[in-house]
Design a protein that fits this description.
Blueprint lengths: L6 H10 L3 E5 L5 H11 L2 E3 L4 H8 L4 E5 L5 H16 L4 E4 L7 H11 L5 E4 L1 H7 L15 H15 L2 E4 L4 E4 L4 E5 L11 H15 L4 H20 L5 H14 L2 H7 L1 E4 L1
Parallel strand pairs: 1-2, 1-3, 3-4, 4-5, 5-6
Antiparallel strand pairs: 6-7, 7-8, 8-9
Helix pairs in contact: 1-8, 1-9, 1-11, 2-8, 2-10, 3-4, 6-7, 8-9, 9-10
Pathway: Cofactor biosynthesis; thiamine diphosphate biosynthesis; 4-methyl-5-(2-phosphoethyl)-thiazole from 5-(2-hydroxyethyl)-4-methylthiazole: step 1/1
Function: Catalyzes the phosphorylation of the hydroxyl group of 4-methyl-5-beta-hydroxyethylthiazole (THZ).
Family: Belongs to the Thz kinase family.
Length: about 270
């Protein structure tokens, strides 16, 4: 891993000084995303109204934008927040949920990409389509393997000058030059709604902690999720018990364990 610090060191720093993360996310994800940030040691704020989103972005340590449940009013808030975060030098993360599904979503994402997100996180189908390729995605579900999206992710990272994370069975992160894969997690994770959306918010929390190393921060967030997912799966009987065990695993995860168990390899 080619960064100046370790995932465990970033987790420790985040808990010592919890960042305020503005999460503009979808209705389905709000509760679990807020709980994921709290369990990890960050402070969530679900602020999306156009009347205050821009002002709040200047206060927050980082911004995350998820287009899961779009409306014109939400788009206004997203754009105001993204512009304010960029102006204030705060990192912001874009989660282009099913952006290929409708013209409304495609146009919204194109406008947000023009505002230069610091980090883009999506599943393989979303990243392939975002790079102009043909994906097999259906709604929010990815029908493409992560490895098939790696070339698209590299191209997108170079074009956008952003860190791009493709999440799935084995995650892939690149800034267009260096790249890594992160192993771990559980097959139960895709069966719990909004865990991916919550991961986007956690990426924002780590980016707020290490804004000078957004590549390393993204890797650290994904490694944290992977190890917590492995731990939660040990005693889970299914997606229901996995869900609460996952929050407990995030809260119990210590920096030393994260560094010892994280499986990060150069790609």
């Amino acid at each position: 891993m080619q960064t100046g610090t370790t995932p465990g060191a970033m987790l420790k720093a985040m808990r010592e000084k919890p960042p305020l993360v503005q999460c503009i996310t979808n209705y389905v994800a709000m509760n679990i995303a807020a709980n994921v940030l709290l369990a990890s040691g960050a402070s969530p704020a679900m602020v999306h109204a156009a009347e205050e989103a821009g002002e709040f972005a200047g206060i927050a340590s980082a911004l995350t934008i998820n287009i899961g449940t779009l409306s014109t009013q939400w788009i206004d808030g997203m754009q105001a927040a993204a512009k304010a975060a960029t102006s204030a030098g705060k990192p912001w993360v874009l989660d282009p949920v099913a952006h290929y599904a409708t013209a409304f979503r495609r146009n919204a994402v194109a406008d947000l990409l023009a505002l230069r997100p610091t980090i883009i996180r999506g599943n393989a189908s979303e990243i392939i389509a975002l790079a102009g390729g043909e994906s097999r995605g259906q709604g929010v579900d990815s029908r493409d393997p992560v490895e098939q999206a790696e070339g698209s992710a590299r191209w997108l990272a170079e074009r956008q000058r952003a860190v791009v994370a493709v999440t799935g069975a084995v995650d892939f992160v690149t800034d267009g030059e260096k790249a890594v894969r992160i192993e771990g997690g559980s097959a139960l994770m895709p069966q719990v709604t909004a865990l991916g959306c919550s991961l986007t918010c956690l990426v924002g929390a780590f980016a707020a902690t290490a804004p000078e190393d957004t590549f390393g921060a993204t890797v650290a967030a994904l490694a944290t999720f992977a190890i917590a997912g492995e731990e939660a799966a040990l005693g889970a009987a299914g997606p229901g018990s996995f869900s609460w065990r996952f929050l407990d695993a995030l809260a119990a995860l210590d920096p030393e364990t994260l560094d010892a168990r994280a499986r990060i390899s150069a790609a």
